[in-house]
Amino acid sequence: MVDRTVNNFYFPGMARPRTFDEAQVLRAVRDQFWNKGYAATSMDDLMRATGLGKGSLYGAFGDKHQLFLKVFDTYCVSSVESVKKTLEGPDAGALERLRQYMLGVATASAAPANRRGCLLARGTSELAAQDAHVADRALETFRGLEAAFVRCLEQARAHGDLAAHADSQRLGAMLLAVFRGLEAVGKAGMDEASLRGMVETAFEHLPAPVKRRR
User: Fold this and answer.
1) 3 state SS for 33-67
2) Rounded CA gap, 210 and 76, in Å?
3) Comparing C-alpha atoms, which of 181, 6, 176, 35 is closest to residue 114?
4) From the CB of residue 54, how many other CB atoms can be counted at a distance below 10 Å?
5) Taken in order 84, 88, 92, 96, is the CA torsion positive or negative?
6) 70-203, what's its fold?
7) Residue 204 per-residue DSSP state
8) How do the pLDDT tens digits run along the chain, 214 residues long?
């Protein structure tokens, strides 16, 4: 059997092993960008937030831009996966799952603690115009969220909770706009009742199925 304990030691000429929790460091980096934005965050800020020196940060993750892209990509992927997981379930109840999810977003968006918005929105508004990677990743994320909504709507239509002629793609795109709008107006201070009212109005206007005759 091969003895792998040598990996726990450092020898002159070898790169020093990492002595920090990478996930914890990246969370600190993410929160720093999230709170201050990309341009307003300096390497000194990141050093203070993580407790690491510039050499350690550069050696492990690259420069400031590379660090941002890493945490931005991770945030985007986890956001889509979280929504997909929340909306998973049988055809029966799919529309209600989607409605309850959107109402939850409305409530969260109205909370003072969430006034900073999400990293996706902040990074997109600040960098997408000049950073193709951020623009592409943001668009991919929005498409992923839209696809999760469309899937729920298709399930609802199959179960008879939406009209047979309902266009799930167009309705999914509309709900994506509502979803993103909730955060934007929530950041401005709009109250929870108003945000939840927007969601209820959107769902009240979805094409209803023709009532089955007895």
Assistant:
1) HHHHCCCCCCHHHHHHHHCCCHHHHHHHHCCHHHH
2) 38
3) 35
4) 12
5) negative
6) Tetracycline Repressor; domain 2 (1.10.357)
7) H
8) 433 333 333 334 444 555 778 999 999 999 999 999 999 999 999 999 999 988 888 888 989 999 999 999 999 999 999 999 999 999 999 999 999 999 999 999 999 888 888 999 999 999 999 999 999 999 999 999 999 999 999 999 999 999 999 999 999 999 999 999 999 999 889 999 999 999 999 999 999 998 744 4
Write down the pTM of the prediction. 0.85
* Tokens, residue 138: 């943001």
How many CB atoms are closer than 10 A to CB 183?
Answer: 20
Residues in the chain: 214
Residue linked to tokens 């769902």: 203
Domain limits, the chain: 70-203
* Angstrom distance (rounded) from CA 85 to CA 148: 9
